[in-house]
Amino acid sequence: HGKENVDSRHNRGRGGETTRFHTVNVAQPVRFSRKCPTGWHHYEGTASCYRVYLNGENYWDAVQTCQRVNGSLATFTADQELRFILAQEWDLEEKTFVRKDQRRFWVGYQYVITSRNHTLEGHWEVAYKGSSEVFLPPDPIFGTAMSENENVLCAQLQCFHFPTLRHHGLHSWYAENCYEKSSFLCKRSQTCVDIKDNIVDEGYYFTPKGNDPCLSCTCHNGEPEMCVAALCERPQGCQQYRKDPKECCKFTCLDP
């Protein structure tokens, strides 16, 4: 990270004159906290990013929206991941399709009905074949907009807006008509994000999101690796200055 104060080191040069060296940035260990684009929440346990979309879409449109951002409707690998999701505050606005204190999101499961005798019987499946996810929901609450002709229902995860309920992990699973409109939860792999919030492809050089615009790293599995840092000389003829937070070795002189 950049060092704000200017180091001055004095040495005796030839002829007895004093030479002065200045460095503005001093290379130090760097921690990278941003591995997701703006608006996404990062979970270290799965190296994944999550985002709730508030615009109401039916299940199939929600699937396409998630695919356009290189993700899919969220499925979960373990209870810990689900608890992480339930504990998040998703910047939810007044737009909602259910009660204000409750939120329902489409997620990546479908309930396949196998019998309609006295009670509905069926089982959950991951919506995308070949998925490695192992967590399947418990028995669902059946939605009110069911059609007698539908043999496949789509999963909605209900969580609660109030912090106390969120942090206790209270939630419900609904099997709902797939053509109902709802908010939805997308999931994608963590990625490299540069200092200007652009997504960086695997293997490319970039400056990571952080406090040092003079770092250059290689993107590998969503992480910045093999980073090198530039050290900047302070601007000549300027006593007071401000470093540009986004451009390496660019300064604004603050002298009168």
UniProtKB/TrEMBL annotation:
A cellular component term from Gene Ontology for this protein is: membrane
Residue ranges of every copy of the C-type lectin domain listed in the record = 45-187
Name the InterPro entries on file: C-type_lectin-like (IPR001304), C-type_lectin-like/link_sf (IPR016186), CTDL_fold (IPR016187), DGCR2-like_CTLD (IPR034010), IDD (IPR042378), VWF_dom (IPR001007)
PANTHER family tied to this protein: INTEGRAL MEMBRANE PROTEIN DGCR2/IDD, INTEGRAL MEMBRANE PROTEIN DGCR2_IDD
What is the name of the protein in this document?
IDD protein
Give the originating organism. Answer: Cochlearius cochlearius (Boat-billed heron)
Its ancestry begins with: Eukaryota, Metazoa, Chordata, Craniata, Vertebrata
